[in-house]
Amino acid sequence: MKDDLALRVHERLSACPGLCPVGPAEGQRFARWDLASLAEGALGACADPDSITASHEKRLRLRLGAAGREYEHEDDHCRRYWIRDPAEDREDGRPRGPLGTVAVDTWPSGVGSLRVSSLYVHPVARRRGLASSALDTVYEACRAEGLHGFRLDTYWTWQRSVRYYLNRGLWVTSWKHALGLARLSYLPRYEVTESEGELTFLVADPKACAAGATVPLLVAGAVDGRLRLREAEEYARTRDEPNAVRYYARSTIALHLAVRGWPLVRGEEEWAEAVAGRWCDIGDPEGLARKIQIFEQVARDDGWRLTGLYGRSSPSRRD
């Protein structure tokens, strides 16, 4: 049943004018676009995917290691799409070339969601809302078929992508192997505001009559290089209730703090727990601080670009 739901989602995506399914003969071309995305994020090397030669492709894949391994197009686990702009169709109605890529799984993951990958927009077509439109299309197709939405992964060292997804309002739902983010129907719209040295995490208030009304859940600040995290009244009120919003609010504000370079560690006891493995998959900010150290070390070992990142200075932020 769940697989059937996913396939019906793909029927909707295939009919969307902003997406075009990748044909069997286009697998190698899609792979080069995927490679261009990896190279830009991991190495800072920006290249026109359709201009990548065979020798250049080989060099990039060697530099990217396991992340640069080529996939087989006959992959039953996901379907791939070109992102296009219908407004650019030729006068005869034929579409112009692709402007980006996105892939969507054919089997739900987590609780009723589909995993998105390979989201990329060609540099010449950016700042036109194409990636946002593609994500909105996937979400709406999932909801139309009774699924909750989508999940995706990104790397901490890909700061441009991390900040983009946070600005899109995605929730942080995992940091086990990479940063897992999601847009799910049971997680409400949220806002993060900064004022007077504090960061406040607010969510849409379902009880309010006014459209756009929000209620604060968590308030974060910094004192002497340590994190101070305070639970607002609405958060404390639901302390004993099973609540996904409560659970993911802590991890989501943690990533917002991290991209701003704020402390993630409240004290030595919490840091020792994180080092011992607590919150290694998701949870409190100290778990993210520990995982950032690991993410950056792995990226450094693989020869990936690390510039201006939080994790390298995290020890001084907890001493």
TrEMBL record:
<dbReference type="GO" id="GO:0016747">
    <property type="term" value="F:acyltransferase activity, transferring groups other than amino-acyl groups"/>
</dbReference>
<dbReference type="InterPro" id="IPR000182">
    <property type="entry name" value="GNAT_dom"/>
</dbReference>
<dbReference type="InterPro" id="IPR016181">
    <property type="entry name" value="Acyl_CoA_acyltransferase"/>
</dbReference>
<protein>
    <recommendedName>
        <fullName>N-acetyltransferase domain-containing protein</fullName>
    </recommendedName>
</protein>
<dbReference type="Pfam" id="PF00583">
    <property type="entry name" value="Acetyltransf_1"/>
</dbReference>
<feature type="domain" description="N-acetyltransferase">
    <location>
        <begin position="33"/>
        <end position="204"/>
    </location>
</feature>
